[in-house]
Specification:
Blueprint lengths: L1 E4 L12 E5 L9 E4 L1 H6 L1 E4 L6 E7 L3 E7 L4 E7 L23 E7 L6 E5 L11 E7 L8 E8 L2 E9 L4 E7 L5 E22 L2 E2 L4 E13 L4 E2 L5 E10 L2 E6 L4 E6 L2 E3 L1 E5 L8 E8 L2 E9 L5 E3 L2 E3 L3 E23 L7 E21 L6 E9 L7 E10 L6 E3 L4 E3 L5 E9 L4 E2 L2 E7 L6 H4 L4 E8 L13 E2 L14 E5 L7 E5 L5 E7 L1
Parallel strand pairs: 10-18, 22-29
Antiparallel strand pairs: 1-4, 2-3, 2-5, 5-6, 7-8, 8-9, 10-13, 11-12, 11-14, 14-15, 14-16, 14-17, 14-18, 19-20, 21-26, 22-25, 23-24, 23-27, 27-28, 27-29, 30-33, 31-32, 34-35, 35-36, 35-38, 36-37, 38-39, 39-40
């Protein structure tokens, strides 16, 4: 039997969610749990346990209270007989191909406080009830002795329906929301503890991360994490788990009869690393392996079709971190492996690897550092450099013969010469220099590895083929110049704000300057 339950909550009341009990089992086991207050206020329909005459509605949230509601339903006894009554007769025609089954007659006798008995005859009625999809939630922690408080607020269609908190000694809250497909769910968890700690908030849906884990190491007092995108309820049940953790430094104390020794181990730090390339069309595979104190903590790789790639492993402060970079491509190639490290700076500024060379098959590079707050961002670049071919044309020497005589001017038919006092033979040898310009862009060779000063840049090799706009009459870039990596001028060189040099045929020498992220040249621009 279905029955609708409605309650009234005074303004400002904090009751709910609710569990529903019946007197069938002495109010021991709820037949509905975690029913939202908003549903009961609007009128909540449930299937009444057989024989129940009283329903007990208990608030199990912030407010804990119960109320008993009589069902006002009479006691019902149901019997079924296969004998048809005189009011209904069904004859099955054996000559037809359609089989008709006569439904049994159900006789229901209802008894109330009066002595009146009513007998009715009806056909069998089938009622199908489709249950609402359930949104189940759990608020938990993996560090029950270290948390302060972790609060969870859930809203459905912008209406708050859950506001629950866990703490030391009360480390789990669970509940179920009966929703309708299409309703929009948002949630926010607040992980709070006074002081500086390593906070971590994680949200999973049906056992899978709903969004990347939110770590703040360290943070002061709290870490607030919301659903990165609201969740639209589907037709199936779903379970969200909200986990808030606190990871303080680990302290180990050893006590003997005469001395007490305390050893404090520094907290874990997050290493944000990224593997990328500036020559995606030329690489094959670049892979990275990261070890902390000889234990592999992360790996990854990129290809020409899939890049960049990164990760964020937790590494103990003070650990010795070793990074192996393998740049692989069949045949003989010019490989380049570069790495920079720093403190949450993208890109970081300290160069810890600059390995370039020709090799067959692959170039493997290794570097190491000590994990610290100043080494929490790592940028690794793997490139395959295309050799640049330079053609020099030499003009055959030209011999010029000057014939003189004692006369100041003489006529030798077709040659008129103003003669010095003696005969002179001059031989000239020259080299042809070609400056290539396409569509207003001038071709040149750029140093590949950025440097922190013009002096350091001036000693670098120029090996990367580039095209530069707005050079001056001496083929020197200006502050209006843009550096491109193709002659069409559609792809800019991605600089880091550091120094490079460029060699342009026909210029008076190599010039040094800085290049920004959009390929913009800036100064001061000077000759090396």
């Amino acid at each position: 039997m279905l029955i609708q339950i409605s309650i009234t909550i005074p303004p400002g009341g904090a009751a709910g969610p609710f569990d529903l009990y019946s007197d069938v089992d002495g109010f021991t086991t709820p037949f509905e749990t975690q029913v939202p207050a908003v549903d009961l206020v609007a009128g909540y329909t449930v299937t009444l346990p057989m024989g129940a005459t009283i329903i007990r509605v208990c608030s199990v949230g912030t407010c804990e209270n119960c109320i008993d509601l009589p069902t006002n339903c009479p006691t019902t006894t149901t019997s079924t007989t296969v004998e048809p009554t005189t009011t209904t007769t069904t004859t099955v025609d054996p000559t037809t191909t359609t089989t008709t089954t006569a439904e049994p007659t159900t006789t229901t006798t209802s008894t109330s406080t009066s002595t009146t008995t009513t007998t009715s005859t009806s056909s069998t009625t089938t009622t199908t009830t489709t249950a609402s999809p359930k949104f189940q939630y759990e608020l938990i922690t993996n560090t029950p002795l270290d948390i302060g408080t972790v609060n969870l607020v859930i809203e459905v269609d912008s209406v708050q329906v859950v506001n629950e908190t866990i703490s030391v000694g009360n480390t789990s809250q669970v509940g179920t929301l009966n929703l309708t497909a299409g309703q929009v769910v948002t949630a926010t968890m607040t992980n709070t503890k006074t002081g500086t700690f390593n906070f971590g908030n994680k949200i999973t849906k049906d056992g899978v991360l709903y969004q990347p884990q939110d770590n703040c190491e360290p943070c002061v007092n709290e870490l607030i994490t919301s659903l990165s995108s609201s969740y639209t309820m589907g037709s199936a049940n779903t379970t969200f788990v909200f986990q808030g953790d606190i990871n303080p430094p680990t302290t180990t104390t050893t006590t003997s009869s005469s001395t007490t020794t305390t050893t404090t181990t520094a907290a874990d730090l997050k290493l944000d690393w990224e593997l990328l390339t500036t020559t995606p069309a030329d690489i094959d595979t670049v892979s990275v392996e990261i070890l902390a104190d000889n234990v592999v903590v992360d790996t990854g790789s990129i290809t020409s079709a899939s890049n960049p790639f990164g990760g964020s492993p937790l590494i103990q402060s003070g650990a010795n971190v070793v990074v192996n970079v393998t740049n692989a491509k069949s045949g003989n190639n010019v490989f380049e492996n570069v790495a920079r490290i720093g403190l949450n700076v993208n890109p970081p500024q300290t160069v810890v690897l600059n390995d370039q060379g020709s090799a067959t098959g692959s170039l493997v590079s290794t570097f190491s550092f000590i994990m610290a707050v100043s080494t929490t961002y790592l940028d690794i670049t793997g490139n395959v450099l295309v050799p640049t071919t330079t053609t020099t044309t030499t003009v055959e020497p030209t011999t010029t013969t000057t014939t003189t005589s004692a006369v100041g001017t003489c006529d030798l038919g077709t040659i008129t010469i103003t003669a010095p006092s003696q005969a002179t033979t001059t031989t000239t040898s020259s080299t042809t220099t070609t400056t290539t310009t396409v569509g207003g862009l001038t071709q040149g060779l750029l140093s590949l590895t950025p440097q922190s000063s013009a002096a350091l840049a001036c000693v670098q090799s120029t090996i990367l083929d580039v095209w530069i706009s707005n050079v001056n009459a001496s083929n020197i870039p200006t502050n209006n110049s843009i550096v491109y990596t193709n002659f069409q001028g559609t792809t800019t060189y991605t600089g880091t704000g550091d120094w490079h040099i460029v060699d342009i045929n026909g210029s008076v020498g190599n010039s040094s300057f800085t290049i920004g992220a959009n390929g913009q040249v800036s100064g001061p621009i000077s000759l090396c």
